[in-house]
Amino acid sequence: MIAAEKANHSVSRMVELLEVSRSGYYAWAARQGRPPGPRAVRAADLSVKIKVAHDASDGVNGAPRILADLREAGEVVSRKTVAKLMRDNDIRGISPRPWRPVTTLPDASTHSIPDLVERRFDRGALNAVWTSDITYLATDQGWLYLCAVRDGCSRRVIGYAFADSLHTDVVETALRRAVTFRQGDTAGTIFHADRGCQYTSTQLGQVAEDLGVRLSVGRTGVCWDNAQIESFWSTLKTEFYNRHHFTTHAAAITAVSTWIETVYNRRRRHSALGQINPVAFEHQLTTAADQAA
Fold it and tell me: Are the C-beta atoms of 163 and 183 separated by less than 8 Å?
């Protein structure tokens, strides 16, 4: 304002009226002709890299995962700096909203299956505990149901299946695919779920016996007893599914399968894994085991 009105009023009078110092105005005016300093250049460079990393995550990642991306690329930067630059540039990650699953139909016979996990999903080794659940996916053709099996140690989705009904077959298919993926090395593996009738059925009991896995269920209505797989559903819905519209079951199956295999298992960083993806984490575990042998 002072610079714009210099032709009409004296600088002394204007700084007096605006209650600013004369020296302060001249210091500001001197800075206007200078190139940006090192700090401003660094902030601008980081802002561009943060935007690129955010776009690469489909607009999902917040400061912790973007920080991991930057550090992996060789940047030396703090989380506070990344968070500040994201705020300054209106770059935001996606946070999950609370939701309640509606696919659990209790079975009166569940008392015979114990809780072998007691919320200790990660036992420090692959194939020690697998968690599973069923969720619903909305399409223009009606509900589509997805059953997933996830390794409690690596958080990797190792088996999944889709169906247009809540029959036990969808759980059996997902479990058999997980066993096949692990090449049958599942003797003693705990297969943990909620007390839905699909998981406590005679059919699944026979399947588990044939495959050598041990069934485990949490308490009725206590989501924390199967919290790890519930967390996966929250991620799937918040970061991917609810951001798209699917007209057919086939389109939803293709899109979700691709997201699980290419984004969740192989690209998405997980805070519990040291900000690396599940496939990379499994590779670290197996490499360390081979070197120790």
Answer: no
The CA distance from 242 to 139, in Å, is 11
Residues 237, 94, 42, CA angle at the centre, nearest 5°? 150
Query: Residue 3's CB: how many other CB atoms inside 10 A?
Result: 12
For residue 45, with 0-12 CB atoms within 10 Å meaning exposed, 13-18 middle and 19 or more buried, which class applies?
exposed
CA dihedral 220, 200, 114, 260 (to 10 degrees): -80
Q: Is the per-residue pLDDT at 98 higher than 60? A: no
Cβ atoms 283, 127 nearer than 8 A = no
What is the per-residue pLDDT across 177-203, written as a single tens digit (0 to 9) for each? 999 999 987 888 999 998 888 999 999
The DSSP bridge partners found for residue 136 are: 145
- Do 237 and 99 contact (CB within 8 A), yes or no? yes
Which pair of structure tokens corresponds to residue 64?
């912790």
Tokens linked to 249 = 């079951």
- What 8-state DSSP symbol labels residue 164? S
pTM assigned to the model: 0.71
